[in-house]
Design a protein that fits this description.
The chain has 3 helices and no strands. By secondary structure, it is mainly α. It has one domain: Methane Monooxygenase Hydroxylase, Chain G, domain 1, CATH 1.20.58. The longest helix is centred in the middle third of the chain and has 41 residues. It starts with a helix and ends with a helix. Its main location: cytoplasm. InterPro entries: TBCA (IPR004226), TBCA_sf (IPR036126).
Length: 113
């Protein structure tokens, strides 16, 4: 049985994962710039290899985060649909959930393009 409390939790989860995704994307940009800078300056091969490993780990987190976001979005949609069936459709929680869904779907569309 879906409740408004569950809806708030699922909405917050989606928002948190979106923040994580943006954070990882920024981290990849920073680490890529740092790696390129180290290559230009002719850094020690060991240090360069370690930096490349850090960059690879950061890149691995993005697909994982997207997968979690897809699952979280599906949960949110399911909870919203369940609440729609019980004729509970009004309130700030529903507006927040719908706007979060729209934001996440736009994020996926821009990633695919």
């Amino acid at each position: 049985m879906a409740t408004i409390r569950n809806l708030k939790i699922k909405t917050s989860t989606c928002k948190r994962i979106v923040k994580e995704l943006h954070s990882y994307e920024k981290e990849v940009e920073r680490e890529a710039a740092k790696t390129a800078d180290m290559k230009e300056k002719g850094a020690d091969p060991y240090d360069l290899k370690q930096q490349e490993n850090v960059l690879a780990e950061s890149r691995m987190m993005i697909p994982d985060c997207r997968k979690r976001l897809e699952a979280s979005l599906a949960d949110l949609k399911g909870t919203l649909a369940e609440l729609d069936e019980t004729n509970e459709k009004e309130g700030p929680e529903f507006e927040d959930a719908r706007s979060t869904m729209t934001e996440v779907e736009k994020l996926f569309q821009t990633a695919e393009a």
